[in-house]
UniProtKB/TrEMBL annotation, chain A:
Organism: Streptomyces dysideae
Full protein name: ABC transporter permease
Keywords recorded for this protein, A-Z: Membrane, Transmembrane, Transmembrane helix
Transmembrane spans: 26-47, 59-83, 104-127, 147-169, 176-194, 231-251
UniProtKB/TrEMBL annotation, chain B:
Family: Belongs to the ABC transporter superfamily.
Originating organism: Streptomyces dysideae
GO molecular function: ATP binding; ATP hydrolysis activity
Entry-linked PANTHER family: ABC TRANSPORTER, ATP-BINDING PROTEIN
Gene3D superfamilies: P-loop containing nucleotide triphosphate hydrolases
UniProt-listed PROSITE patterns: ABC_TRANSPORTER_2
Ranges where the ABC transporter domain occurs: 2-227
Keyword ATP-binding among record annotations: yes
Cited Pfam families: ABC_tran
Name of the protein this chain belongs to: Multidrug ABC transporter ATP-binding protein
InterPro entries, sorted: AAA+_ATPase, ABC_transporter-like_ATP-bd, P-loop_NTPase
SUPFAM superfamilies: P-loop containing nucleoside triphosphate hydrolases
Keywords: ATP-binding, Nucleotide-binding, Transport
Length: 256, 306
């Protein structure tokens, strides 16, 4: 055992291993396609042309199950970091990698890539399946239509960034219930409350909250009054970078 | 080799460790003693870089723990119980740690074997007893084949067989030339394995000494003898420096000689012995006296200030 050293690749292997050796990861990730495909099919089966949903974007309509996915990847993000504090595992982790920050970067990279892959696969499955039921309606579309692929990929990228944001929050809050509370409160509920305020500037800002930006990103045809896909993706990236940076600064300073 | 230089840790107004300096040398077992809440765990956490000292610093093998390229190869640590995810199996917990350093899988099997966990390796840690959890923590500590081993209260939760196993393990690790630093709040248990002692109370150094000196100074080391022929044995053992008290008929407390001498003397004269026990309790008493003084001292100081 002469070549023992901690390297970024080894930390990556370790974090990858850790993620797949607990049940909650498998359960959470299995729920993503199940709920998204299920919701997509239910929508497709019950849709009527000219009804109340006619003005909803076709991608947003078929991917309505992503409402669940937001919560699932958010919880997964919080569990990835805060879960280590709740269980006490963090002491072992930080004794093995006492420089600390490689653990945070690696966790973020592993979670983002897995979320992106699972959600993208789910989206590429859900859209055509739902479309088989929507073929004769005013929501008929195919993967080749303008903006469809961009919206399906954008949605996956947005959810991956949302997962990283949640991971950063989990690292800051260090408690699973606390992290999930902050996540739902600040990211899901707060924008709805702010939208009620009668100020235009608030409306403009709310557009760039993660869930709103994710909605915008999931449009094949950008709607007026929402962020453009590029701006929405940038906003989500900034949320992820900001929380992760704050998490890194505090991780380096605080006692474990 | 572990060195602490004037380690001080403050949490808000509360100073948990004050100006603590000591050196732990390789090749022997060093006991780290203090009552519960005396700052032992905090000191160990500072050595391992989990907590940052308010003042002072600690080094392991000549540099800060975090500065080592392979920390698990430098120091193996048994931290407080439950430093793991209960939903993961013992095997996967150890594998995740091993992967960070490129430690081969065969080593995971080896430490599982060494700690007697091979059969439980693929069970989730959730179902482990306290003792099995301790064994897993020790397996994790040994994973990197470390030059220094730091164990926080390793006998906690272990059954008598496990306690015996720990004693043998600690001694053999030290015999291999490793630095072994073991915290405990039990003097009698520590005296069985350690050669050197670092004793703290209220976060301050009270004694940095050898077990032998501590025992001698404490006046501990009496031997309890139960025999139907007490008067004869008293006469035979009488010698300069030997003090014998007999509080109950047939039971002697002998000070100034050892079990071997008493046993041989009795055998040579055909005296029956029902019991021949080195009295560790008095060692415990000496330890409690030492630490109680520090607590009272501190309490008086606080009273004087108020």
């Amino acid at each position: 055992m002469t070549s023992l050293t901690v390297t970024p690749t080894r930390v990556l292997h370790a974090e990858w291993h850790k993620l797949w050796t607990i049940r909650s990861t498998w359960i959470n990730l299995a729920l993503v396609p199940v709920l998204t495909v299920g919701t997509g099919l239910a929508i497709g089966a019950s849709y009527e042309s000219g009804g109340g949903d006619s003005d909803v974007d076709v991608v947003l309509l078929t991917l309505l199950g992503m409402q669940f996915t937001q919560i699932i990847v958010g919880v997964l993000g919080v569990l990835t970091t805060a879960g280590e504090y709740s269980t006490g595992l963090i002491r072992s982790t930080m004794t093995a990698v006492p420089r600390r920050l490689p653990v945070l970067w690696t966790k973020a990279a592993v979670l983002a890539s897995i979320t992106f892959t699972v959600v993208l696969a789910t989206n590429l499955l859900t859209f055509p399946l739902a479309q088989t039921l929507l073929a004769d309606t005013d929501q008929a579309a195919s993967l080749g239509d303008p903006g469809i692929i961009r919206a399906l990929v954008g949605n996956a990228a947005g959810l991956a960034l949302l997962a990283v944001t949640a991971l950063g929050i989990g690292s800051l809050v260090r408690s699973v219930p606390g992290g999930i509370g902050v996540l739902t409160g600040a990211l899901l509920i707060l924008p709805e409350v702010l939208r009620m305020l009668p100020y235009n500037v608030v409306d403009d800002a709310v557009r760039y909250f993660p869930t709103k930006a994710l909605d915008a990103l999931t449009h094949a045809d950008p709607t007026p009054g929402t962020a453009t896909p590029g701006a929405a993706l940038l906003a989500l990236a900034l949320w992820a970078v900001a929380t992760l940076t704050a998490a890194a600064l505090l991780l380096k300073r605080r006692d474990v | 080799m572990i060195t602490a230089h004037q380690l001080t840790k403050r949490y808000g107004d509360r100073t948990v460790v004050t100006d603590l300096s000591f050196t732990v040398r390789p090749g022997t077992v060093t006991g780290f003693l203090g009552p519960n809440g005396s700052g032992k765990s905090t000191t160990l956490r500072m050595i391992l870089g989990l907590d940052a000292p308010t003042r002072g610093h600690a080094t392991v093998g000549g540099r800060a723990y975090a500065a080592h390229p392979a920390p698990l190869h430098e120091v193996g640590a048994l931290l407080e119980a439950g430093s793991l995810h209960p939903g993961r199996t013992a095997y996967h917990h150890l594998t995740a740690l091993a992967l960070t350093h490129g430690i081969p899988k065969s080593r995971v099997g080896h430490v599982l074997d060494l700690t007697g966990l091979t059969e439980a390796a693929h069970r989730r840690v959730k179902g482990f007893s306290l003792g099995m959890g301790q064994r897993l923590g020790i397996a994790a500590a040994l994973l990197g084949d470390p030059a220094t081993v730091v164990l926080d209260e390793p006998v906690n939760g272990l059954d008598p067989e496990g306690v015996l196993w720990i004693r043998t393990l600690l001694k053999s690790l030290a015999a291999e030339g490793r630095t072994v630093f073991v915290s405990s709040h039990l003097m009698s248990e520590t005296a069985l394995t350690a050669e050197h002692l670092i004793i703290i109370g209220r976060g301050r150094l009270l004694a940095d000494t050898t077990v032998e000196d501590f025992v001698r100074q404490s006046g501990a080391g009496t031997v309890k003898v139960v025999t139907p022929d007490a008067p004869t044995l008293v006469r035979l053992l009488s010698a300069p420096g030997v003090h014998i008290t007999a509080d109950t008929p047939g039971t002697l407390d002998v000070r100034g000689t050892d079990t071997e001498h008493i046993g041989r003397t009795a055998a040579a004269h055909g005296i029956t012995l029902f019991e021949l026990t080195p009295n560790a309790a008095s060692l415990e008493q000496a330890f409690m006296d030492l630490t109680r003084d520090s607590v009272e001292f501190a309490a008086t100081l606080e009273g004087a200030r108020a």
